[in-house]
Design brief:
The complex is a heterotrimer of chains A (176), B (101) and C (665).
Chain A lengths: L1 H21 L3 H21 L3 H26 L12 H22 L18 H19 L3 H22 L5
Helix pairs in contact in A: 1-2, 2-3
Chain B lengths: L2 H24 L3 H26 L2 H31 L13
Chain C lengths: L6 H21 L5 H28 L5 E11 L2 E9 L1 H24 L6 H20 L3 H19 L6 H32 L4 H11 L5 H17 L8 H4 L5 H10 L4 H8 L1 H5 L2 H22 L5 H22 L2 H36 L19 H15 L5 H15 L3 H26 L13 H6 L5 H16 L4 E2 L8 E2 H19 L14 H25 L13 H7 L4 H49 L5 H20 L1
Antiparallel strand pairs in C: 1-2, 3-4
Helix pairs in contact in C: 1-2, 1-4, 2-3, 2-4, 3-4, 3-10, 3-15, 3-20, 4-5, 5-6, 6-8, 8-11, 8-13, 10-15, 11-15, 13-14, 13-18, 14-15, 14-17, 14-18, 15-16, 15-17, 15-20, 15-21, 16-17, 16-18, 16-20, 17-18, 18-22
The chains are: A mainly alpha (176), B mainly alpha (101), C mainly alpha (665).
Chain lengths: 176, 101, 665
């Protein structure tokens, strides 16, 4: 069952990602990215990252993509110009890079440089499940977050503050 | 959870990343380029989560932070695009040479 | 034992004079009082000290050299050159001649340079010249002599181009210096060879070791002496490096008298005489020296017969007489060469000083009438004897001396040279020297006739017009007295060497005096078959030939004189260009033009090539090319900075992938 879902979500993610980059209409592109994000959330769940799956849906797909949509609507791009693809040089470059990169990372993943942990033995000890059982889904992430990673957490909040201010400043209309 | 599935997750992550790169190179619309960047970030998130399955919870914490930063970055980036659009009525990256001295 | 008296003072006085006068040229520019006193006094003082030393040497009866060590100069490895002065019989003669004649010329210059704005500078340079000349003749080693050698070359350049505002004059100075340089190269190479073989450059050890170290007629001896002779050819204006001397007449006439007649140009003869031992060991070099000397004597005399500029005639005459001196030392008659050097100093200096007075007077005459012409050109002279009696008489004295008429000085010295060439086994050169002697008499008579006589056949008589007459004046006392003294010396100066063959008391004062200096050389020559004959190549003894040469010389003088006096001459600027053979001679056989074509122009083309191709093209090209290349590379780099967002995004991705790749490995 898990395997089937896994493959389903994986295929969905990849396919809709391809659609994202090939749609002319930016709204369509955003939509497909949302599909991708949802598929990823599903994969998160299957990988025992429940909290992150929720956050993915709520924040990423829910807030960020909505923001994108707002901007697309605001700029009223639709079928307007500027939504085509780059020139032939970029296309060849993209093709080359895409294929090369994919092949390269695939090679890495398949143990090209160093073998994956557990590749030899066939199974590994699971570091996540004990945590999940102890603290629950949210707690598993929250406990390290507020203990070991407290300072990055606080700094990130400052970062968000800065981003908010920056966004406001950049996007406001000039004073007449 | 068998290592095979984790490996597949990583391959998916690689594929998504590559697709994102292709999208960045290929598209003209600044917003769509942004979208592809978000795609790349998500690919990385998947990779983190997959590895955390093997190596510990720290991977998930990293994803948390990545998401926060991605949100901030998206906000600011889109604000910039809006600012540009106000002046030029266009978001075609081929058209802008504002960075030229 | 002879101890030199105040040796350093001999050098210090002229040097101090030069410094003070030089200072004067800057500080109290137009005030001439100091230079008037100091210039001649510095040299006169040196003469006095030299004379004192002469008598000291005489009474001490010293025969060998006394070397005074002043201080160490160059000490490096095996080389040890000090500031050492050599007082021996040969250097004493040279010192007397140099300081004596210099003093007379300095006194004369007070009058001659009276109106010149560069008065102080002139005496500074002239004193400096005397200083260097003394270093040259007093140096006890080759390097020190070379210091003097170069120094007189420098002063010659400064003094030839004294009126430097004229480009022609400064070019003459440059020509002298550059041509001399070729000779200096010879001097340097010779010094290198000497040091290599002898390990030292001081005269006493080198000449002492030479007979034992060098093989008679061997390669080393020949090479060293040939290179030394190259230096002489440059400095003493022999073929083929004589071309600077006629041009050097651009300088003030006292300069021509002192430097280019009496002293500097004789330095080459002194060098050969000083190195007599080395030359005695190299018969090939001796033959070269003698042949070049004889050839030059004839060649220059021929050219002199067709020159119109009075100073040029005297210049070629000097070249010719220098040839005689080299002929003498070349055949091994070293003392005779020095003897002729001495008498020549007297009568040639006199001739130049007299010519200077003439030129001055004629120039003033032209001023008086408001016209202009070349005061040097003898066609513009004529009948000047009426206005310049002292000059006239003394110049006749010098003319008879140089023509070799008994009993004037030149008879004894020049005929001695010719005689020695004949008896020491050089019949061809003997004949050449004879012919040159008769030519000498001829051109000198021509000079005198043109300048001082023949007024009724000229279209311009300087004294005829009233305006001119005020300009023409006899030389003032300060100029006349040196002329007179030299005139007397031109008569009696030869009487210190009266040969045996003549029905006169035999006097060999100079030869005897110099014998110790040349003894080693004479020994070598005698050992290798140099026995003097007793008759000349055509037979007849010394008396016979003495009579013959005097009579013929006198006859030539009279004959040419009458011919020239009778002929009509128009003013120089109206005169037609000479034609045919006369033109060739007037144009000095086109030697200067030949040098220009064959040497100067190719060299200039080479320099221009070096300039344009090597310097501008290669070096500048490389340097500029590097700069341009850098700019090009920068331009390429700047193409990336298009400012286009799209391009930047692309590059961004490329960078990302590069980083990934690096991290993976």
């Amino acid at each position: 069952m898990i395997e089937f879902l896994f493959f389903l979500f994986s295929a969905l993610a990849v396919l809709s990602a391809v659609m994202v980059i090939t749609r002319k209409n930016p709204v369509s592109a955003v939509m497909f990215l949302i599909v991708t994000l949802f598929s990823l959330a599903g994969l998160f769940v299957l990988l025992e990252a429940h909290f992150l799956a929720a956050v993915q849906v709520i924040v990423y797909a829910g807030a960020i993509m909505v923001l994108f949509l707002f901007v697309v609507m605001l700029l009223n791009l639709g079928h307007a110009a500027g939504t085509e693809f780059r020139g032939s040089f970029a296309r060849t470059l993209a093709g080359a890079f895409g294929l090369g990169l994919a092949a390269f990372t695939a090679w890495l993943v398949m143990g090209g440089r160093s073998p994956m942990p557990g590749a030899a033995s066939g199974s590994v000890t699971d570091p996540i499940l004990p945590l999940l059982q102890e603290h629950g889904a949210v707690g598993a992430v929250a406990v390290p977050l507020f203990r070991r990673y407290l300072i990055p957490f606080e700094v990130t909040s400052v970062l968000l503050l800065v981003a908010i201010i920056g966004a406001i400043v950049l996007a406001r209309k000039e004073a007449p | 959870m068998s290592p095979v599935l984790i490996r597949i997750a990583l391959l998916v992550s690689a594929a998504l990343f590559a697709i994102g790169v292709v999208g960045v190179i290929l598209r003209r619309n600044a917003i769509v380029i942004f979208l592809c960047v978000e795609l790349m970030l998500n690919a990385v998130n998947l990779s983190f989560v997959a590895f955390s399955r093997l190596l510990g919870i720290d991977g998930q914490v990293a994803v948390f932070f990545v998401m926060a930063v991605a949100a901030a970055e998206a906000a600011v980036g889109l604000a910039i695009i809006i600012a540009i659009f106000r002046h030029y009525e266009d978001v075609d990256v081929e058209r802008f040479d504002l960075l030229k001295w | 034992m002879y101890h030199p008296v105040l040796p350093w003072l001999i050098l210090a006085l002229p040097l101090a004079g030069a410094a003070l006068n030089g200072l004067g040229a800057f500080v109290w520019r137009d005030d001439r009082k100091l230079a008037t006193l100091l210039g001649p006094a510095a040299v006169g003082g040196a003469f006095v000290v030299v004379a004192i030393n002469f008598f000291a040497m005489l009474s001490a009866g010293a025969t060998g050299p006394s070397v005074v060590h002043l201080w160490s100069w160059l000490v490096s490895g095996g080389l040890d050159v000090g500031i050492d002065l050599q007082f021996d019989r040969l250097s004493m003669v040279m010192m007397l001649v140099v300081t004596g004649v210099s003093t007379l010329i300095h006194v004369y210059s007070i009058g001659y340079m009276r109106g010149d704005p560069g008065f102080n500078r002139f005496f500074a340079y002239l004193n400096l010249f005397v200083f260097f000349m003394l270093v040259l003749v007093m140096g006890a080693s080759f390097p020190l002599m070379f210091v003097g050698w170069e120094g007189v070359g420098l002063c010659s350049y400064l003094l030839i181009g004294f009126w430097y505002e004229s480009e022609e004059y400064s070019n003459a100075g440059k020509k002298a210096f550059i041509v001399n340089r070729i000779g200096d190269f010879g001097f340097l190479v010779a010094m290198f060879l000497i040091f290599r073989i002898f390990g030292t450059l001081d005269f006493v050890p080198v000449f002492g070791a030479a007979p034992g170290t060098l093989q008679f007629g061997g390669a080393w001896a020949t090479l060293i002496t040939l290179f030394l002779f190259l230096a002489c050819v440059g400095k003493s204006a022999q073929i083929p490096l004589y071309v600077w001397l006629p041009d050097a007449m651009a300088g003030p006439t006292p300069v021509s008298a002192l430097i280019h007649a009496a002293t500097m140009v004789t330095a080459g003869v002194y060098l050969v005489a000083r190195s007599s031992v080395l030359f005695a060991l190299a018969p090939l070099s001796q033959a070269v020296v003698a042949s070049v000397g004889a050839a030059t004597a004839l060649f220059a005399a021929v050219i002199a017969t067709q020159q119109w500029d009075i100073k040029k005639v005297l210049a070629y005459s000097t070249i010719s007489q220098l040839g005689y001196m080299f002929l003498a030392v070349g055949v091994g008659a070293f003392a005779t060469g020095i003897f002729h050097l001495m008498t020549h100093a007297f009568f040639k200096a006199l001739l130049f000083l007299g010519a200077g007075a003439v030129i001055h007077a004629v120039e003033h005459a032209w001023h008086g009438t408001g016209r202009h012409g070349d005061p040097n050109d003898m066609r513009n002279h004529g009948d000047l004897r009426r206005w310049m009696p002292v000059t006239w008489i003394t110049m006749w004295s010098a003319t008879l001396a140089i023509s070799g008429v008994f009993p004037f000085a030149g008879f004894f010295s020049k005929d001695e040279v010719i005689w020695k060439a004949g008896v020491l086994g050089y019949p061809l050169l003997w004949g050449v020297a004879l012919v040159a002697a008769f030519l000498t008499a001829g051109y000198m008579a021509r000079l005198m006739a043109l300048t001082f006589h023949g007024g009724e056949n000229r279209t311009f008589d300087p004294g005829a017009e009233s305006g001119a007459r005020e300009g023409l004046h006899a030389a003032p006392a300060v100029m006349a007295i040196p002329l007179a003294i030299l005139g007397v010396l031109s008569l009696v100066g030869g009487w210190i060497q009266i040969p045996e063959g003549l029905p006169l008391p035999h006097v060999a004062a100079l030869e005897g005096w110099l014998e110790p200096a040349f003894e080693p050389a004479h020994e070598i020559l005698a050992a290798h078959g140099g026995v003097a004959a007793s008759t000349s190549p055509l037979g007849g003894g010394e008396l016979t030939w003495g009579l013959v040469s005097t009579v013929v010389a006198l006859a030539v003088v009279v004959w040419i004189f009458r011919v020239v006096v009778r002929r009509r001459y128009v003013r120089a600027d109206e005169a037609p260009e000479p034609a045919g053979l006369a033109r060739v001679l007037y144009r000095k056989f086109y030697v200067d033009e030949l040098y220009d074509r064959v040497i100067v122009r190719p060299l200039m083309a080479l320099w221009r090539g070096c300039w344009k191709i090597v310097d501008d093209g290669l070096i500048d090209g490389t340097v500029n090319g590097l700069a341009s290349g850098t700019r090009a590379v920068g331009w390429v780099g700047s193409q990336f900075q298009s400012g286009r967002l799209g391009a930047y995004i692309l590059l961004f991705m490329v960078g990302v992938l590069v980083i990934l790749g690096t991290l993976a490995f």
